[in-house]
Amino acid sequence: MREMIISELSQALDELARGFAHFLPRLIVMLILMSVGWVIAYVLRVTLRSVLRLIKFDKLSDKAGASQLLTKAALPSATELLSQFVFWVAWLGFILLGVSVLGIMGLQEQIARFFLFLPRLFVAIFILFFGMLAASFFSRAALLAAVNANVPSPRVLNLAVRTIIIIFVLSIVFEELGLAQHTMLIAFGIVFGALMLGLAIAFGIGGRDLAQHFLEKRFVREKKEENEDELSPL
Amino acid sequence: MAEESFLSDDFLRQLINVGEVDILVGLPTHNNAKTIGSVVHAIQSGILRCFPRERAVIIDADGGSRDGTPELVTGISIDDVRQTSNLYALRTLHSISTTYAATPSSGMALRAILAAADLLRAKACVVMSPGSANVDSEWLASLLRPVYRDGFELVTPTYRRHKFEGMLITNLLYPMIRALYGVRMREAYPPEFGFSGRLGSQFLGQHVWSDAASGDDDSVELRFILTAITGGSRICQSFLGDKDHIERRAADLVPALRQTAGALFSALETDFSVWSSVAGSNPIPTTGDDQAVLLEPMRINRKRLREMFATGVAELESVFQSILSPSTLAELQQIARLGEEEFRYPAELWVKTVYEFAASYQKSVISRDHIIQALAPLFRGRVLTFVIENRNASADDVENNIEGLCLEFERLKPYLLQIWKSRE
Q1: CATH code for the domain in which residue B41 is found
Q2: Nearest CA of chain A to the CA of B297: how many Å?
Q3: Has residue B260 got a pLDDT over 50?
Q4: Confidence (pTM)
Q5: In a domain, B207, yes or no
Q6: Domain segments of chain A: what residues?
Q7: CA B397, B400, B406, B411 torsion-angle sign
Q8: Total domains present in chain B
């Protein structure tokens, strides 16, 4: 009995030792990959940060209105955020590569999926950034045009333009990421339709007085002002 | 000569038929059938009266008129002028018309005129506004004589205006050019001006015409004037008379700002080495009145001006945060709360505002066109202050107020240099 226990134990220990001897090199490879990955990710972060500072990416981000959002969310600057993002994506890639070396069943497919997902993630970020830029540009253009044309409530117009563009951009981003495509499409349709209907109802019924005031202001006043000299700026 | 390639074969053929000329009169036209007859008659009369022995040509650079303007220019006979004035020219006066594009662009029109002047080796040139209803034959002589006889390179006009007309000139363009370039030029964006063929050829070779070719360069006249200033050309001013009262709508302000403030801010970038080293300002030789002012009563909607200023300051706060310093914005917000009677946008604050806009334009803190558009409501505030301050002012008082503003622009020039450099 005692000998049997010792034999089983030594067999188990042998198997454990064999398994460990088999696993250890893989673990070392994984650690090496993770370390090398960290160095590469770090170099990438430093290089990207320098390039972004050189091209004044933060200014571009300011123009896009992204900086304001980041500040409100207590996040670092766009340059810092993007550098960090690239660092973590690169390092995570190496970590997953290392984990795949361990040969854990079922993990391989998930890791492959992750790598296939990366290009789409970058495209989505690209679309989001330039979408924000477009939203900021066109909403500001609408605001300035409305203010200079003396249109009442110019900020509503500004907000409407911004909202429509952002909704449109988000729907493209989610489609690119393959996340809840149908839900997003339906949500976009509902929000856009609701917005338009809301505006129509607000202007037609809820804002009847405002519309009347607006039309009077535009036409009746202008008629009156026709008798007054316009100043020639030049 | 390299510029001749964009001219049409037909236009080149007509120019070759003309040969060399002494005087060239350029007309940048577009649907000016109503006024072009009197303008051409005034030009013909001016040539017969003052330059009967000189070889002269009228070049009509047309931007796709549909009312027969080019035909009118080439069809107007000089005989009518001869009969009425009993004057005779010793040379043939040629009239040529070319359509440079289907849509009007003052840049492309000037380019065609300069190229024609270059090819015809014109000694003195003048650009006349085809839309002026009150052009006098003396205008031509006033703009050409200093170039042709006295060796000046550029002649800009001065006009008799109503005290509240041309406030973009009196409150921004004139004082800012005076402070930065050191030249007291009353009309730096004139519809009429004279220049030497040499200056025209020089500008034709120097200026980048890509914007003009795309039809976007509507401020090329200002660039031309600034090139003459920075190039050290001999410049003088000639008094022409009454400036046309042009009916404009409030919506015209933004294009006017683009053509003047936008063009000036853009030029500051390239001319930095010149204007940053200029101190003070000097008068330039002037024939006739420097600035004559009309004082007739004029109805101005002050309430609307104040409203548009206050709305602009409130609604564009996020835009102004990118352009203006916090202290300037805070002061503007204070002013926006004032009623119509106590409203005052002080000269110092206006100058600081303009300088901060110029520096922000250079740094492109937001879209440059948006920066110019954002200036419009603030300019309305300044207009209101100018109107209030000069409501009952005499011509001398108005002149003193403009002079005070100019001195403020000169005094605060170091501030512009400081923010220009600090934001780099």
Answers
A1: 3.90.550.10
A2: 10
A3: yes
A4: 0.80
A5: yes
A6: 118-222
A7: negative
A8: 2
